[in-house]
Design goal:
Elements: H1 10-17, E1 62-64, E2 69-72, H2 75-86, E3 91-94, E4 112-115, H3 117-124, H4 129-133, E5 137-139, E6 141-145, E7 151-155, E8 163-167, H5 168-171, H6 186-195, E9 200-215, E10 229-234, E11 239-244, E12 250-257, H7 258-263, H8 267-277, H9 279-285, H10 287-296, E13 299-308, E14 311-312, E15 316-317, H11 321-324, H12 333-350, H13 355-385, H14 391-406, H15 414-419, H16 425-442
Parallel strand pairs: 2-3, 6-10
Antiparallel strand pairs: 1-2, 1-15, 4-8, 5-8, 6-7, 9-12, 9-13, 10-11, 11-12, 14-15
Helix pairs in contact: 1-2, 2-12, 3-12, 8-9, 12-13, 13-16
Bound molecules: flavin-adenine dinucleotide (FAD).
Length: 443
């Protein structure tokens, strides 16, 4: 049997958890006492499936063949591989990308991430939370930048609660060499089955695209802005954010409608725009560097995808972005993908590793939660770029924090439920609705 290798997190996780996961040929070694339930006849892979309707099924799938588990991966794929290896399964991991260690770090493509409780707890369950906590920079609050350059912090939650800014590229350092081969029969298998699935699918591109810019450290080698914050320049219909990196740079992301990006054609267009909207940032970045990065870095689209079911009998399940891509405004895509692994592992435990019944339950129960998260991410698209500047919103936030202090178990602000708890996302929406009504009455 042949195999591939893991993506960003795979080998690091493998090393961290003490599992022997080889990402070149056949992979996770189960404890000798466990007979691998699944065994693959398939050869290894480099699948270039057509991106039909942009559906990202090809991006990540966990497929159970006769007696084996095959995983396409990056984040979620690597983590579920570790979970399954811990359960004693033999796991093959396939990754279509080149070995990232051999690629020059591409600024503008490798966004960093805000990890919160769900992601960290899902890593903790396999003993790997140190991997990100060691690499991450705590962000305790949003730092709002006005047009004039004034800054106002808005804490995320209670004292001590914070998000972790983790640079994806850092996690690539441990990666092993990729060895991609062909997986015969795989493609036709999936598509044939999808026809009989009564498979629901919907997607929505938002009008905005995103472009990354790197704000370098100062000449003295220090952070150019206050470090423990997620910096936001909210401008109602668009915004820019910045997250700190361990090398003392910031990864900044400009979210702007595509039709406005299209208008920024010349150097003058870009400078005029930044002078009007982000003058403090332009001062820090410098005109030359800004123009270089702006015209070099790509503009990416953002899509929200919902689908169901997530499984095909006991043979296949999709997790992570493949099942539920969401717009990035709540910083929950990876957190949710990692939580998929935790939830699936719990359900496998409950069903004594019977994939038939476990995948059915996973598909049914997880769907409402992750679709709720897709909706919440769309909501935060508005909160981040616009509501954070509204006095009514800020007053409400203070009131909700006070009510949370008064009744910590009964009244939990929406952001706290999403980012600092493991309350199922659907319950988060339900609770938030009655809290909003209650809050409005008091206001
Ligand atoms: C601008 C932006 C900011 C974001 N910020 C955050 C944040 O702050 N916090 C957060 O939690 N999330 C964030 N996200 C979301 C996060 O990036 C994704 O949710 C996360 O990467 C999903 O992980 P995944 O493993 O499901 O999929 P992916 O990371 O997409 O991994 C899929 C892997 O499968 C591989 N692959 C694809 N096709 C094949 C094939 N045919 N054969 C073999 N391998 C294949 C790919 O090469 C890739 O490595 C952000 C996203 C964007 C766009």
């Amino acid at each position: 049997m042949a195999g591939g290798r893991g993506g960003d997190l795979g080998p690091s996780l493998a090393g961290y958890t003490g599992f022997s996961i080889e990402f070149c040929t056949a992979v996770a070694v189960p404890p000798p006492c466990v007979t691998a339930k699944y065994k693959a006849e398939a050869k290894a892979t480099h699948l270039n499936w057509p991106v039909e309707s942009q559906f990202k099924l090809q991006q990540l799938c966990l497929s159970m063949w006769e007696d084996d588990i095959l995983i396409e991966e990056a984040w979620a794929g690597a983590l579920i591989a570790v979970y399954l290896a811990k359960r004693g399964f033999k796991v093959d991991v396939f990754e279509a990308r080149k070995d990232p260690r051999k690629e020059v770090a591409q600024r503008g493509r490798s966004v960093n991430l805000a990890l919160s409780v769900r992601g960290i707890e899902s890593l903790r369950a396999v003993g790997a939370e140190g991997l990100v906590t060691a690499l991450g920079i705590p962000m305790h609050a949003r730092m709002i930048h006005s047009h004039s350059g004034n800054t106002t912090p808005i804490p995320y939650g209670k004292k001590g609660q914070h998000l972790l800014s983790v640079e994806r590229q850092k996690l690539n350092n441990d990666l092993l060499t990729a060895k991609l081969q062909e997986l015969s029969g795989y493609k036709s298998y999936l598509y044939n089955n999808m026809k009989h699935l009564r498979f629901d699918f919907s997607q929505e591109y938002i009008p905005h695209g995103y472009k990354e810019l790197c704000l370098a450290p100062t000449k003295n080698g220090e952070f150019a802005m206050a470090v423990n914050y997620l910096h936001i320049w909210p401008r109602q219909t668009f915004m820019m954010i910045a997250l700190p990196n361990q090398d003392k740079s910031f990864t900044c992301t400009l979210f702007l409608p595509f039709d406005q990006f299209d208008k920024l054609k010349t150097k003058e267009d870009v400078l005029t725009f930044f002078k009007a909207e982000f003058p403090d940032f332009l001062n820090l970045m410098g005109e030359e560097k800004l123009l270089e990065e702006f015209f070099r870095n790509p503009t990416g689209p953002m899509v929200s995808i919902k689908c169901k079911p997530y499984h095909v009998s006991d043979k296949l399940v999709i997790i992570g972005d493949a099942a539920h891509a969401m717009v990035p405004f709540y910083g929950q895509g990876t957190n949710c993908a990692f939580e998929d692994c935790l939830v699936l592992n719990g359900i496998l435990e409950k069903h004594n590793n019977d994939f038939g019944s476990a995948l059915q339950e996973y598909s049914r129960t997880r769907n409402k939660d992750v679709e709720s998260m897709c909706d919440l991410a769309m909501y935060n698209y508005i909160e981040m770029r616009s509501l954070v500047t509204s006095p009514v919103f800020l007053m409400k936030k203070k009131l909700f924090n006070f009510l949370h202090w008064l009744m910590p178990k009964t009244f939990i602000p929406l952001y706290t439920m999403v980012s600092f708890s493991q309350i199922p996302y659907k319950t988060v929406i339900d609770r938030s609705e009655w809290q909003e009504k209650y809050g409005e009455v008091i206001l």
